[in-house]
Amino acid sequence: MKWGFTDLIKQSQRIIMASLLSSFTAIYSLTDISYLFLSLPSGVLIIFGISYYALGKLDWEAYKEQFLRFRHFKLVLVLTALSLFAYCSRIKSTLHGFLPNSTNTYVVVGLLLLLIMILTINYFMLWYVLVSKYLRKLISFGKKLDLFDRSLIYGYIILFAIVNLIVLLRTSAFIFPMSDGSIAGDVIFNTDTAELLYPIDGFTTPNSSENDFRQLLFGIIGFPLSMICTPLAYVIQLFVESSGAPIPFETIYGYLISIGQAGMFAISAILIKKMLSKEMNLSFARLFAVVYLVSFSTFIFTMTIEQYALSTFTLVIFVYLFVRRADGRSALVVAGSTLTSSFAMLPLVVFDKKADWRSYLVKAFKMMFATFCVIVFFGQLYELLSAVHQLFAYSQYAYGESITQWDKLLYYVQFIPSLFIAPDSLIVDGIISSGEASGFQYVLGITIFLLSCLSLSKLKRSRLALISVYWVFISLLLIGIIGWGVVEQSFVLYTSYFAWAFLISLALIFNDLFKNRQQFGKVVLSLIILILVVSNSLMITDYVMKVGSFN
């Protein structure tokens, strides 16, 4: 078979694109000298072969014709520039980490090679595929938002852009905790804030210390947020330094991430409102969206840099797609920033009343295999296969000589109220920790759990009730039975991840109680919102004042 010049061009483009894709694997794997049982070059070569084969199945000529007529062409260019900037920053830190004695020459060479590879029509095409398939749907979703939705989103973002800036002027404990030059990453309820930002950015690095088997794809799902915040942080830092007030890049970057977290929580609230509006009147649904935003778990993780804001956001998107009966495979991929949500939700995704057990197994196997391929592609195979060993290592947070099953259940009951209202806390050596629960908190926790379980009566006719009650029982399994985090009393860490499920379950029951007395129900919800705002604001203000020594 003779190749013409056109065929040679096509093959060259295919090779460049496969090289680009396999370069992701190389960059994300360079922190290890081997790719599990393969050497790093061999592992990347295999990824190159798979990418080359897969690209051969796509009609790139047709994509190019569509691309040139694409109405959001400018958006593609902007996203390309932003991702290029963030990716160059990532490769720079990788080269310095992999070659600790390297000079800037290595960085320059690496960036030049990257530019040669990226500045082709193929890289723009890659963003075109993403934009045309996903961002166009997001743009369409945004256009359908009503005045309440837009006001809630913009208002919450602006509010916490101001609040977080004021807090940052008082203390860096929520954004980038530093004390006497040493990192103190667990200042706010054992959160790992600093370790997500320094020395390696956890939002763009799958194999960072915080993105282990629990968060295998967090560094991929978090990349779009980082690629917007990274160039903005550099610009702001240059402006601030020129004014004679040097501020660490990580502090500015973390502040911008916190604004992004506010946006993700606000959008999550709108998605919850949209799901609830199918089950109750719109006024109730809107008020419950506000309840979600003023809950303690949402407040604290909007202000604190942690993985749970993004993980909860992707999980709520999954729930939204599941309730709308969208493609379960796509929905599960969206929730893939945490291994917990991906595998725990798998039974619901493959569920089909008309299918037999063989169909369940085949569908589950295909999805697990696809997940495995993605994990391998991004250099996380070692983390996945070492999950059992890591699980035993982390078991110290769930088991102790003096910890009984009764203690775990009490711990879970104490956990439930903190989903919505700030728990009692102790501040020891400037670090905020959970305190002992009062009798009222135990009663409140049991009451909330029992009310949430009442939603079981709606399972046959409501997919929303099914998934929310299912997730309530997942929280019971993880915290009340296994006792995850009971040893170090860090239950606040997991509040954001489960708050939406309890809120939806309670909302469904609340609607049954007040659907014939809607005005009274609105008054009750308004009072709840007022109580939450005042109580949580006062408590968090107290936290800020007491950890103000961090700089």
How many strand segments?
6
Strand content: under 5%
Our Rg estimate from Cα atoms comes to: 24 Å
- Let me know the largest β-sheet: 2 strands, antiparallel
Low-pLDDT ranges: 31-38
Which structural class matches the secondary elements? mainly alpha
What's the overall average pLDDT, rounded? 79
* Amino-to-carboxy terminus distance: 68 Å
Biggest β-sheet: strands ordered side by side in the sheet: 1-2
CA-based shape? globular
Count of helical regions: 25
Helix content: 55-70%
Describe the 3D structure.
With 551 residues, the chain is mostly helical. Helix content is 68%, strand content 3%. It contains 25 helices and 6 strands. The longest helix is centred in the last third of the chain and has 29 residues, at 518-546.
What keyword list fits this structure?
mainly alpha, 6 strands, single chain, 25 helices, 551 residues
Summarize the structure.
This protein has 551 residues and is an all-alpha fold.
Topology record:
Layout: H1 5-29, E1 34-35, E2 38-39, H2 40-55, H3 60-68, H4 73-98, H5 104-118, H6 121-143, H7 147-170, E3 178-179, E4 182-183, H8 193-197, H9 218-221, H10 223-242, H11 249-276, H12 282-294, H13 296-303, H14 308-323, H15 328-334, H16 339-344, H17 346-349, H18 357-377, H19 381-385, H20 387-394, H21 405-415, E5 425-428, E6 431-434, H22 439-453, H23 463-481, H24 495-514, H25 518-546
Antiparallel strand pairs: 1-2, 3-4, 5-6
Helix pairs in contact: 1-2, 4-5, 4-6, 4-10, 7-11, 10-11, 11-12, 11-13, 11-14, 12-24, 12-25, 14-15, 14-24, 21-22, 21-23, 22-24, 23-24
